[in-house]
Amino acid sequence: MDGYLSGLALLPILFLQGKQVRRKTPVLPEPVGSRIGVNGQGKPLKLLIVGDSAAAGVGTHQQDMALLGQTLAHLKQTFEVSYQLIARSGATTAETLTVLETLPSQSFDTVITSLGVNDVTSSVTVSTWRQQQAMLRSLLQDKFNAKQAIITKVPPMHRFPALPNPLRWYLGDRAKRFNDILTQDVELEHRCQLLNLETAEKHIPMASDGFHPGPDIYHRWGKRSAHLIKRFHSD
Predict the structure, then answer these.
(1) Per-residue pLDDT tens for 41-84?
(2) String of b and e for 79-115 (b: at least 16 CB within 10 Å)?
(3) What number of other Cβ atoms are within 10 A of residue 59's Cβ?
(4) Contact 140/192 with Cβ under 8 angstroms?
(5) Burial tier of 203 (Cβ tally within 10 Å: 0-12, 13-18, 19+)
(6) Do 107 and 130 touch, CB atoms closer than 8 A?
(7) Would you say 218 and 195 are in contact if contact means Cβ atoms under 8 Å apart?
(8) What is the pLDDT of residue 157?
(9) From the CA atom positions of the chain, what is the Rg in Å?
(10) Distance between the two ends of the chain, CA-based, in angstroms?
(11) pLDDT < 70 stretches in the chain
(12) Residue 152: CB atoms within 10 Å
């Protein structure tokens, strides 16, 4: 509540800073590379990655360096992965739900989601986002028969170099509240696991725009995702 009231008081400054950030921050393209295919050898595994610009790999030039490619690189000796990437820059949870609802029903062993940053920067309330995320998890299990859902937490926006204060503080506080709710809910669902990318390191190797992950973050993300996948599907 304190963060909400402080945000209201700072609203004119936050609005101006938001406009400045959008005007000054360079728009990085989504990386090139295949978004659907088969990779690796071993036990068959169907993988779906859905979400926003980070899921799409913005901040890298090739999908091999992005979340998809790095996850595949750490799975290829163990699994023959049939993969799909459904992600778009600017996507919110609500927009991703709409896209997934239009797709035909199919089955996936693992789904990785990356959503929240665009929800945090929008006007959606925490309670509405909570409902949308719950609908997303239900859709993944009911329509796509996801045996495992890896839900990536909202990144630490209070550490984004592109954001000036107090906008950085406000969005960081909002992201934390989103994550607190997400943690409460996901911990109750046995087929869902949280993935936290926050680190204690002082320097976070971001992309050149100061807003998206850099290659090192994608490497860690893919490695951690692959670890969760291997552990879950080890039987």
Answers:
(1) 999 999 999 999 999 999 999 999 999 999 999 999 999 999 99
(2) bebbbbbbbebebbbbbbbeebeeeeeeebbbbbbbb
(3) 24
(4) no
(5) exposed
(6) no
(7) no
(8) 95
(9) 17
(10) 45
(11) 1-9, 200, 235
(12) 24
Distances (CA, A) of 57 to 54, 210, 212, 231: 5, 14, 9, 24
Token pair for 105:
């029903």
CB 175 within 8 A of CB 187: no
Beta bridge partners of 194: 151
Tell me the pTM. Answer: 0.94
What does the alpha-carbon distance between residue 231 and residue 235 come to, in Å, rounded to a whole number?
A: 9
Q: Is 116 left (phi over 0), alpha (psi -120 to 50) or beta?
A: left
Pairing of strands 36-40, 79-87: antiparallel
Which two structure tokens, joined as six digits, stand for 218?
């994608």
- Cβ atoms of 93 and 119 closer than 8 Å: yes
- By CB atoms closer than 10 A (0-12, 13-18, 19+), residue 45 is buried
45 and 229 Cβ atoms separated by less than 8 Å? yes
